[in-house]
Specification:
heterodimer; A: mainly beta; B: mainly beta
Chain lengths: ~110, ~110
């Protein structure tokens, strides 16, 4: 596997379910990100981890809980979501430096019913 | 304004040039980026420009930067059907810190035969 991978690619869950999204990067990067992409809205940065420490939490509701056990893996734990949380969730990684070129995974399409 | 702004749609004929425009928010942004998102895929960095440049050319892509007006454009020469995608401009606002990419809404480019 190369680049940034995300699993699952599609997820349908009820509002009372608990699920987790997984992201893995094989690029040796030291920063990882979660974004939410909704139709006709700008990409919303949710969380940033740098060297496994959370450095950004962009006013995200507590029903989203990130976890970064090591520099290659990032999880987004989901519980008691709302239908408006349905979106494409994108993971990205980057290596520190001024250009900050972020490499994105293909995303998880989440539908909350 | 507070948002990175892009028009939502652009339609061009194959072989013509496409110009995608963006107005960003922070004149102190050091790097400005263009990302491409093909259907069902994550974002892919196309090119970036450093803020002390007016223009950058990379094969069929030309980026123009007008710092005074905070205007960024991406020109694609000889547009092909494979260029059909959503194009996002992004900046790292000075106030946002080194990791916080702020994206526009994206411009959907449709290339017609």
């Amino acid at each position: 596997e190369t680049g940034v991978t995300q699993t699952p690619r599609h997820l349908v869950m009820g509002m009372t379910n608990k699920k987790s999204l997984k992201c893995e990067q094989h690029l040796g990067h030291n920063a990882m990100y979660w974004y939410k992409q909704s139709a006709k809205k700008p990409l919303e940065l949710m969380f940033v981890y740098s060297l496994e420490e959370r450095v950004e939490n962009n006013s995200v509701p507590s029903r989203f809980s990130p976890e970064c056990p090591n520099s290659s893996h990032l999880f987004l734990h989901l519980h008691t979501l709302q239908p408006e949380d349905s979106a494409l969730y994108l993971c990205a990684s980057s290596q520190g430096g001024s250009v900050n070129e972020q490499y994105f995974g293909p995303g998880t399409r989440l539908t909350v019913t | 304004g507070e948002d990175v702004e892009q028009s939502l749609f652009l339609s061009v004929r194959e072989g013509d040039s496409s110009v995608i425009n963006c107005t960003y928010t922070d004149s102190s942004s050091t790097y400005l980026y263009w990302y491409k998102q093909e259907p069902g895929a994550g974002l892919q960095l196309l090119t970036y420009i450093f803020s002390n440049m007016d223009m950058k050319q990379d094969q069929r892509l030309t980026v123009l930067l007008n710092k005074k007006d905070k205007h960024l454009s991406l020109r694609i020469a000889d547009t092909q059907t494979g260029d059909s995608a959503i194009y996002f401009c992004a900046e790292i606002p000075f106030t946002g810190g080194g990791n916080k990419l702020t994206f526009g809404t994206g411009t959907q480019l449709k290339v017609e035969l």
